[in-house]
Amino acid sequence: MQPAVAIANQKGGVGKTTTAINLAASLCHLRRRVLLVDLDPQANLTSGVGRAGCEAPGGTVFELLTADEPPPLDEFIIPTGIPDLSLAPADRHLTGAELELVDLPDRESRLSPFVRAARRRFDHVIIDTPPSLGLLTLNALVAADEVLIPLTCEYLALEGLTELNNTVQRVRAHLNPELKIGGVLLTMADLRSNLGRQVAGEVRAFFDDKVFDTVIPRNVRVAEAPSHGLPVLAYDRGSRGATAYVALAREILAAGVAA
Amino acid sequence: MQPAVAIANQKGGVGKTTTAINLAASLCHLRRRVLLVDLDPQANLTSGVGRAGCEAPGGTVFELLTADEPPPLDEFIIPTGIPDLSLAPADRHLTGAELELVDLPDRESRLSPFVRAARRRFDHVIIDTPPSLGLLTLNALVAADEVLIPLTCEYLALEGLTELNNTVQRVRAHLNPELKIGGVLLTMADLRSNLGRQVAGEVRAFFDDKVFDTVIPRNVRVAEAPSHGLPVLAYDRGSRGATAYVALAREILAAGVAA
Ligand SMILES: Nc1ncnc2c1ncn2[C@@H]1O[C@H](COP(=O)(O)OP(=O)(O)OP(=O)(O)O)[C@@H](O)[C@H]1O
Ligand SMILES: Nc1ncnc2c1ncn2[C@@H]1O[C@H](COP(=O)(O)OP(=O)(O)OP(=O)(O)O)[C@@H](O)[C@H]1O
Ligand SMILES: [Mg+2]
Ligand SMILES: [Mg+2]
């Protein structure tokens, strides 16, 4: 697995934040040191690890992106309750970042220096993004080596894939030639239904071998965990959701070795 | 019911588009003339009624919002396959609208003249919005009389309510004093689970009598319908999803009479 991964899909509610938290926690469970970066003004990632309302010494990701000088790592990182899992937190002021960045010359690559520095200290950097293809998501795609695309097996989620793929190719062509699609993850999957099986088939045809073997089932324990500020592995270790995310982490680590 | 309703919630995947399509189709079933307006660059509303890729004579909502003169109604409206249901379509170029509008003096009220004209011809105008609180959603909130908030009974969806409520109050204070919260709709609800019941309880405590009595159950026929370009009422009239949306339309019409 490449060190820096952006979790992106402009379709809302497909499991971006849930995947960021639970993949990160599973990698920590497998003895990796992980940094989570919250690039969504909803700040669900920050609250999902029990850090709602918390700031780092230098502030949140808003200050990180709008700083004049490249920001020192320690100023923008806080610990979470999970060993080996750190966080660059966000809050709702991040909504204003897009308007602040619009007129800056390097508006798409404000995050890159921070992620480059973070790679030296962490085994993995995982960036959560908002449900849009605006400047915040572009900053994540420019800073990352890979993009992981969560996707529900539903028709409306399928519609946005072409646009997302176009955006990734545009970023590769103009801003970040290293960027590649790390994988497509089927989430909240109910493969017993016709719709689920049909859409899963279309996704595998569109993305071919990039679809992870691991499929995340719909599991209410996954949806309950954020209200306790915990990854599902810490909330209910034996649940189908926790087992699936650990299997995903193992699949990704094995592929990275092969990369 | 007030004539113009914005369907908004910055949380992704809570059923905004699904509610716009199926509430509109249910109102048509009850002999009302309805205009749907697609303000989301994902254009799921446009494809959900079988009009993907279609433009009106004057173009899509992008041209409507960036036009120098107030746009004539007929230039931006197309029929759908459903009697009495018309559409102002969108396409992905709408992503660029936010950057185009940023420097205009009346950037939040570019949609208002169009909706004002539309009210004279239609009984209801329903506006779908993207999962963000940016300029496109602000235009919908300024043009509308009411905002309808779809919400899944999950913890992460609960988190964004305060921010959405703050935005609505800010719009009322500075841009549209008429705007009020028309109602909160519980969608994809599974009230058999603890999480579902717990969150529903918290929503009713937060919004009190504004939560609709009608609750939309999770129903796979609702998720299948958009792949056929049809509202669920036309796709499977007897399904639990179709019945629930017709009940919602009746509840809204009855309340309107009382308003
Ligand atoms: N495997 C799962 N089983 C059950 N519920 C899930 C699962 N994965 C995610 N959820 C729930 O589905 C909802 C959407 O997930 P999440 O918020 O992670 O999506 P997102 O793509 O980050 O949304 P947004 O587009 O708003 O950022 C949340 O309430 C979450 O708890
Ligand atoms: N009652 C329901 N039962 C089953 N599936 C549903 C129901 N309502 C919506 N869905 C499905 O859930 C997904 C999310 O719904 P939808 O796209 O309408 O949400 P949205 O809030 O408009 O999303 P976005 O934030 O991306 O605009 C879709 O795949 C839709 O088909
Ligand atoms: Mg999210
Ligand atoms: Mg939508």
Instruction: Tally the beta strands of chain A.
Output: 7
Q: Choose one word for the global shape of chain A.
A: globular
Tally of DSSP helical segments of chain A: 12
Radius of gyration of chain A: 17 Å
Verbal overview:
Two copies of one chain form a homodimer. Chain A is α/β, with parallel strands linked by helices and 259 residues long. Chain A has twelve helices and seven strands. The first copy, chain A, has helices at residues 16-29, 44-48, 61-66, 97-101, 112-121, 135-143, 155-159, 161-174, 194-207, 220-224, 232-235, 240-258; strands at residues 4-7, 34-38, 78-79, 85-88, 124-128, 146-152, 180-187. Chain A has a seven-stranded mixed β-sheet with strand order 3-4-2-5-1-6-7, with helices on both faces. In chain A, strand 3 and strand 4 (85-88) form a beta hairpin. In chain A, helix 5 (112-121) crosses helix 6. The longest helix of chain A has 19 residues, at 240-258. The radius of gyration of chain A is 17 Å and the shape is globular. The model of chain A has no long low-confidence stretch (mean pLDDT 94). One adenosine-5'-triphosphate sits between chains B (12-18, 40, 42, 44, 131, 187-188, 216, 218-219, 222-223, 226, 241) and A (11-13, 131, 154, 156-157). The site of one magnesium ion has 4 residues of chain B, from helix 1.
